[in-house]
Amino acid sequence: MHDESYGDRPRPPRNPRDLRRSNSEDRTRSPEIDEDVTGKELDRAALLQLRTLDDTNRPWVAKHLVMAGRLVDIAPEVAFQHALAASRRGGRLGIVREAVGLTAYAAGDFAEALRELRTYRRISGDQTHLPVLADCERGLGRPEKAIELSQSEEVAALTGPVRAEMAMVVSGAYTDLGDHASAVTALEVPELDINRAFSFSPRLFTAYAAVLETVGREEEAQRWREQAFAAERALGSGAFEDPEILDFDDEPADLPKVKDVLGRSKGRDQGRDQDRRRGGRA
Asked: Where is composition skewed (Acidic residues) in this entry (predicted)?
């Protein structure tokens, strides 16, 4: 495709000073990368996508993606800034659009998350994040849109953890609309198995107990709460998860690093994790 301002004429050569100025501006407005990050921490599939970038942009994008993944659960706003930094040089890559979308979602920017994850889905054909797309609709005050998405052919083909996540989102959407009976039904997927425990089971069981109580089925609700507790114990999660011991560096820093963010995040409400975002939105 030709730029209309030049017609069929070749573009003038790029001034190296322009590139240096652009790189300098990127560094100025981008969050700091921790010293131990090399970019090689990414998995093979991610690194394969990054091979399409030149030698200048590839390490920049890779390192910011590593930082986004490192911080998304403890400092989602900073993780989002890292993903945006990666997008300034690698925005045409699916893995970058995915990172921007997921960190935006974690940071509560549901409109941005919706845009980016739709683009990622179109680029990659991956349906994994359909529950996140549906929950973004809830976050934007459109629970009926979340329900509409859940009735698509793509969602009908989901299985396992992704189907369980979608069930929790849809149940929450029905709850938003005051349709508690449908909220119960939405959770009755094959993954709701009282005799088996998967990583998502404690949250799924707890969500089911909550909606059962809403419709007056208190005894059943109590049984599922007990089973959620048993699943946590079996999985070593929740109340049975080993505490993480962290050493905090007392040296001040002008720009955020993981150790600094961890120190600031100790008093933050941990309800921003998936348990609250999916199926438990107030």
From this structure: 242-253
